[in-house]
Amino acid sequence: MKKVEAIIKPFKLDDVREALSEIGITGMTVTEVKGFGRQKGHTELYRGAEYMVDFLPKVKLEIVLVDEDVERCVETIVNTAQTGKIGDGKIFVFDINRVIRIRTGEEDEEAV
Prior knowledge:
Distance between the termini: 9 Å
Number of helices: 2
Structural class: alpha+beta
Number of strands: 6
Helix content: 10-25%
Strand order of the largest sheet: 2-5-1-6
Order of helices and strands: EHEEEEHE
Radius of gyration: 17 Å
């Protein structure tokens, strides 16, 4: 099993969720996060004063999958979240050792 973490632009969330649902991936955790990479933030004007916004708003998706579904999931996220502009985000794939569904006690692939 693998965990896919994707950090994307907030306005792409609904499109990515729908695209993942179309390929049969329905369970995920979504968190509003802030951060920066090469983008390094930007300056904004507020009441005539310019100030630096270091951390940009992003959305983090966390999805636990069986190994066979990982590549389709990653491809779907890339194809849907990509704008071609800086700050599109990143995808990380981690190994998962154990999963337990609290309600039933099911473990591993049955719990996903």
